[in-house]
Amino acid sequence: MSGSMPFYQKHHRHYDRGYRSRETESKLSQYQTSSRYTAGSSTSAISTSRGLKVSSHSGLEASRLSPVPKRAKPTYLAVDKENQIIGYVVPIFRGSQEFVTGFSNTEEARVRDTAAYMARRDLFTSGLEMERSEQISRRETMRESAERISLNKRIYEHGEHFKRINEDSLMHAPEFVIKPRSHTVWEKQCVRLHCTVSGWPDPRVVWYKNNVAIDPIGNAGKYKLESRYSVHSLEINRCDFDDTAQYHVSAMNSKGEQSAYASVVVKRFKGEIDESLPSPRRASTEDGPVSEYGINFQTHIVDKFGVSFGREGETMSLGCTVIIYPTLHLYKPEVQWYRDDVLLSPSKWNHMHWSGDRATLTLTHLNKEDEGLYTLRVTTKSGYETYSAYVFVKDADAEVERAPGAPLDVRCLDANKDYIIVTWKQPAVDGGDSILGYFVDRCEVGTTHWIQCNDTPVKFARFPVTGLVEGRSYLFRVRAINKSGMSRPSRVSEPVAAMDPSDRARMRGTSAPWTGQIIVTEEEPAEGVVPGRPLELQVTEATKNYVVLSWNPPGEKGLEGVMYYVEKCVSGTDSWQRVNTEIPVKSPRFALFDLAEGKSYSFRVRCCNSAGVGEPSDPTEAITVGDKLDIPSAPSKVVPTRNTDTSVVVSWVASSEAKELVGYYIEGSIEGSNVWEPCNNKPVKATRFICHGLMTGEKYMFRVRAVNAAGLSQFSPESEAVEVKAAIASPAPPYGITVLECVCDSMVLAWKQPSFIGGADITGYFVDYREVTDGVPGKWHEANIKAISDRAYRVSDLKENRKYQFQVRAANMAGVGIPSLPSNTFLCEEWTIAVPGPPHDLQVREVRNDSLVLLWKPPVYQGRDPVNGFYIDIKEADAPEEVWRGVNNKATEKTFIKIKNLKEGERFVFRVRAQNKAGVGECSDVTEPVPALTKPGTKEIVVDVNDDGIISLNYEFCDLTPDSKFVWSKNYEEITDSSRLTIETKGNKSKAIFNTLEEEDIGIYSCLVTHTDGASSSYNLSEEELKRLLEVSHDHKFPIIPLKSELAVELLEKGKVRFWLQADKISANGKVDYIFNEKAVSQGEKYKMNFDKNTGVIEMIMESLTPADEGTFTFQLQDGKATNQSSLVLIGDVFKALQKESEFQKKEWVRKQGPHFIEYLGYEVTPECCVILKCKVGNVKKETSAHWYKDGREIKSDEHLGFTEGVLKLEIAQISKKDAGVYEVVLKDDRGKDTSTLNLTDQGFKDLMNEVFSFIANSSTALKITSTDQGIRLYTFVSYYNDLLQVTWHYKDSAIAFSDRIKSGVVGEQLWLQITEPTEKDMGKYAIEFNDGKGGLRRTVELSGQAFDDAFAEFQRLKAAAIAERSRARVAGGLPDVVTIQEGKALNLTCNISGDPVPEVTWLKNDREITSDDHCILKFASGKFASFIITGVNTSDSGKYSILVKNKYGTESGDFTVSVFIPDEAGGKKK
Fold it and tell me: How many CB atoms are closer than 10 A to CB 1034?
């Protein structure tokens, strides 16, 4: 990488495959042309270790061996040289196919046959030969498979038979013949743990993860357990970080239990193969295959993302629109994103999306690691296109003020069972105080608990973390600290497993990541052998905090369980001290802490196993404890160079002494501010960097410092100040050369302005021409020696009927640019066509979401007649030529037009045609595509009229460049005459002032800002707008003080009169004159004036009004040259009414000095229809008394009122006519008295009762229907009834005339209407109306239909029951209950009998019927009187007697008892 060019501006190697070696190209070509690539399709290599055969598979090599996979059925048996079965071998990764793990002789022959077959296929093309070879190979495969199955079956049956015949002698505890092995696998891959267990009876096998039994049912699809022929396996599907754990398998039977352990470490693929090699192309199964052959794709990247700035923790999206032509449905190019030349892969930090025409990269959580140059690369068969832009990421706000920024790029350099070395990069921001050191935190994968690894901060940006659990995966983060506080934590590292390097040594690499296969080998350990010396002991890293040792295991192979003891010795002594006395080290690397800084030590290592401790290794040379890596020296010679309006290129000389350099940090400061800000937050290794995000026009100074693991260097000397301004360069070449007119010896050429003008105005153009003879161009000749400013030029002195080519160069103050490409070949002959030539110099201005303005110049060649108009055409940029459409139906004579009704966001192109009397001429060149979008920050021209009435047009543009100018035009022709307009420009604002606005100034005024992206705006000064502006100008020249309110009058307390008005706006210099009847009045006893200039309120107050005050009052205002006045006329009745009201208010004030009524006497009706007379009184003291009167007679007296302000009440419970009268309340004490009167007679009483009636009406229930024995009754209930309530009953909306048959009445709170003997004529709508003097209230009910039928039927029933009740036989009375009579006396009883028809009468004695005889005479006279006579009673007549009367309507009885006594018996004893 060249030091003179920034690393992100170089030609990116990962874009170009040309840098690869020929060998790599050859292999890549073979791989890409392989059409039968299948992962693990055949066997390609055999590796042997101690008699154990293990196969290695490679998909790439297999694709060259055979186009059709031919393999034997896979076997898991491992055999030695004598073909004795000694175990099994299984691949770690298994896809959809099984893999062969060993070769028999037949299989080796088949491989040779297959190779011979390939040779024959290359030499002979006979289809018959190929088919025959394939058939032979398949038959052999089938035969071998059948033989293997038969052999396995015989072995198994033989073993089972032997167990049955000698069962007792075979019983033994479980034993692991082959234990499960630890594995390191890629994320999302599958892994299998296998073991072989012997034991009799057959052991029960259970698998555990971190000592928790694995439940394959509870984790469906995650785990799969298999047990076949004493071979047990655990398959873990799609491993993730949570699957990193210690697994063990337990085997148990009646003889005992045994366990075996294995670890699984899951990691992400880091690109151990060449990442620049593309992954194999696969035909799309989702979208369908697309053939690229025969298609030449053109790729364009548009709508690009620019230099972007973000902050840690934010989300950022980068996107570009990709246009691929021709467009193929469902075709997807290869879209790749790079950061600093490194290919990005989808992750939780990077999300990539392709929508069919737009590529998007979303950075979900920005960190400083995400800073860098981002490149989008779109690859098709025809090539690739790229686009790059830089992304800057600032530190998030510190949680503690002046705390440093977070460290970045946390990585793990080395990992084993005992420790992991964590490295990071120092932050660019230290918070203003030096960083004291760093704290390293760790978190076990699958948990959220972070543990601090070091107690004291370390300054070195590398730290070995110890105290880890073997086989578990960890995340790491780092925090920086200074005296102000702690930084935010860095982004976490990738997960890394604490795993022994010896275990890693058995992980023999991987194939390409898409094959997902790992081959495992293992040597059988030798027991009882003491290991030898470790080899090549050396100190790989030394700091003042720790020392790292590394060595190689002893040379002997297959030693059992080798571990290590580390010993140290202080230089100058022979005393060796063991460092790890408790636990031996399993890894051939070890980190030592707690060494004395400045002392020298030597180290040595011993091997140990179960057989003993071996001899020590050779000691290391004496190592002095201290930092071996020095802080780099400061860079020098910092030189800033202008680049763009917001960026500067900074270059410097690299640090002279810098070991293990990480990169450089650049800081910038505005000259004189002494505030330094980082330009990059991620170190850059180049010595040239572009600092973006600077303020245009400011002068900046820069400084640089280097960084390595030891720390940050001193700052370089500050650079010279440089102004942020676009660098000036010669312009790019013009383009689009066309011919506007041609005569016999000259041509008029036109061209388009260069797309890049070099940061300075183009001062002119130079035209060259050359003659073309028979297609061979000649020598270039200069057409003009002096530069021309227009983009059109007549080239003279040409030869008629000769062909010419032209080229144009643009010039600015930096020099003359390179020439344009040669134009097309033009024939120099005179044009004789009648129609005009093409217009030229089309320009687009004032682009908005729905409109733009198009300008052009008329054609040079007029044709036979002068040009009399123009037509404008439009189409979408991507639309075909057939869809051109006209903007105007009638030709316009102007050379500009405003095009409206554009679709927002759409890209359009335009062309113009001129016409004369002969017709329409040739089209102009088409404009560049223009998107209809209003650019952010766009402002329009604003019209302003100042206080002096001067009218001006104002335009403001914020993003000016140093060379920008405001150009004003009228009707799109630059204004050069200052007689009508005066132009003033200051900063980013420009003003066009009308000297004298008149009709000749009518037109379209526009302002263009040069050296921008087309910032412009226009203002149409029409005739109507001219009149409006002249009126506004007049108002400003002769201003009037605006008034919020005109002069008004109001009464104040004590009857004072206040005249007032309020000005809308008046300054502190404003003044007021008070005029009455054209005479000025001033402050005095009669007039009090106030003028509040803050609120604009002006007032004049008079104590009272007299007849002399009748007239006109005027307030005259003046504020500078602005004036106004307002008048109020008070004469006649208006004045008298105001005077009367003033006197009344004065009396009211006097009244309120003693006890008085705040609210005069009134009444209130409660829902219970009670009337309450009440009044509110104020200014009351305890001596104040209140007296109530009715018609002059006192009815109530309240002495010594206990409140200052309150309400007096008098309640009338059931109001009636007698309560009508005049009520009066008198308040009095020593201060005076006040009286309030309420007239409740005549109309006043009526109003009160109407309110009562309203309450009664509203309390009424719905009108209901009931039946009686006389007819049908309608009724309603009210909460309270008053005799004065007026109620009207209606039938069919007419008042009912009452009669004997239809009556109304009141019973308690029930109001009813009785219809006697109803008929069908009485059917209809009935209503009761309550009269409350207002609208009243009406309740209705419909007496018809079913309601009438039900009521009438009930009436008939009740009527019949009543008739029966009246006509039935009755004993009306006359009989006593008991008759006591002396023997011998006569008894005569008579009772009344009623009934129709006349009832039958029967007498009973003791419930037995008796008849009339001489002793007992029974009579029934006139059908009404029944008599019972006993002429002379005796004791036998005593008893119970009854009379029974009966007719057809009923029966009734009457009972009495007769008691006869003899007088001679003592005590009047009854018999």
Answer: 12
